[in-house]
C-alpha cells in the first residue's frame, strides 16, 4: 500500500444530484481520513470501460446508481448473496488481488433505518404492502422477506413491473391492482412507498391513511428537509412513520468501512450535513 489518499466514487448518469458525496465527505472529515469521494458521471455506453479503469486510477471502490446497477453486477468477479438475490449492485470494492466485489446494501439500509427510527416495528407482525416496482422496490421486497414479513404485497401503477418483481422473487409475493392497494392497506403491518409520489408538492398520497390501525409502520424512500406529505399525514394520525433519509445514510455505511477502514456513525450531525 502506498501513502496516497484513499479514493472512492459514486457513478451514475446523471450524477450531479447524488447526495452520496456529502455523506462520505462528512465522514472523511469527521474521522480525519486522508481521502476523497467523488461523483463520476459515466454515460451508459462508457460505463464498462470507465468502471474497469477505476482500480488502475487508484479507486478502492465505488457506489453505483441508476442506470448502472445491473451492469456493475455483471462486471463483478465476486457477488454477495444480497446483490445476486436483488439482481443489482450498489457497492463495489476493487480488491488488491484484482477481484471486483459487488454488494447491494439498499436492503440493509432500509432495515437499519427502520430499526433505528422505529425500534417497536416488527416486520414479522403482518404482511407488508410495497407501493412501486422500480429498483428500490426490489431491494426492499427482498429485505422485508429476509426480516420475516409473512407476505409482501406489491402494487404498482404499471402492473407488468409489479409482476416482474413478483416473478423475480417467487414465493411469498403477491401482486395487487394499484387501485386495490388502498382497500387492503388496513391489513398490512408495514406500508412502504417506493414511488416518486410525494417528491413534488401537491401530488396525491400513494394510499389514503384513514383506515390504518395504530400498530402499522409507514415509510417512504423519498426524503427532504421537511417530512414528505405521506410521512407527515401518517404522523398526524399517530402512526409510526419514517422517511427515507436514513436509508440513504445507512446504505452508505458498509462501503465507507470497506474503502476507508472506519465503521461510520449515522447521527444527527450527518443528517444535518446532508440536508444543508
Ligand atoms: P426507483 O428505481 O428509484 O425505484 P423507478 O424505477 O423510476 O425508480 O420507479 C419509480 C416508481 O414510481 C415506479 O413504481 C413508478 O410507477 P410505474 O412503474 O407505473 O412508472 C412510480 N411512479 C412514478 N410516478 C407515479 C405516479 N404519478 N403515480 C403512481 N406511481 C408513480
Automatic annotation (TrEMBL):
Residues of the SDH C-terminal domain: 244-268
Protein's UniProt name: Shikimate dehydrogenase (NADP(+))
- Which keywords does this chain's UniProt record carry? Amino-acid biosynthesis, Aromatic amino acid biosynthesis, NADP, Oxidoreductase
Gene Ontology process terms (BP): amino acid biosynthetic process; aromatic amino acid family biosynthetic process; chorismate biosynthetic process; phosphatidylinositol phosphate biosynthetic process; shikimate metabolic process
Subunit structure and binding partners = Homodimer.
Which reaction is recorded as catalysed by this protein? shikimate + NADP(+) = 3-dehydroshikimate + NADPH + H(+)
- Hey, which pathway is this one from? Metabolic intermediate biosynthesis; chorismate biosynthesis; chorismate from D-erythrose 4-phosphate and phosphoenolpyruvate: step 4/7
Q: Which residues form the Shikimate dehydrogenase substrate binding N-terminal domain?
A: 10-92
Per the UniProt entry, the signal peptide is none
What positions does the domain Quinate/shikimate 5-dehydrogenase/glutamyl-tRNA reductase occupy? 128-195
Q: Report the family membership.
A: Belongs to the shikimate dehydrogenase family.
Q: Which residues bind shikimate?
A: 18-20, 65, 90, 106, 223, 251
Q: What is its EC number?
A: 1.1.1.25
Instruction: Give the binding site residues for NADP(+).
Output: 81, 132-136, 156-161, 221, 244
- Which organism is the protein's source? Amaricoccus macauensis
Q: What is the protein's known function?
A: Involved in the biosynthesis of the chorismate, which leads to the biosynthesis of aromatic amino acids. Catalyzes the reversible NADPH linked reduction of 3-dehydroshikimate (DHSA) to yield shikimate (SA).
This protein's superkingdom? Bacteria
**Which InterPro entries is this protein grouped with?**
Aminoacid_DH-like_N_sf, Inositol_monophosphatase_CS, NAD(P)-bd_dom_sf, SDH_C, Shikimate_DH, Shikimate_DH-bd_N, Shikimate_DH_fam, Shikm_DH/Glu-tRNA_Rdtase
Q: Which GO terms describe its cellular component?
A: cytosol
Question: Where, if anywhere, are coiled coils annotated?
Answer: none
Report the active site residues: 69 (proton acceptor)
Q: Which GO terms describe its molecular function?
A: NADP binding; shikimate 3-dehydrogenase (NADP+) activity
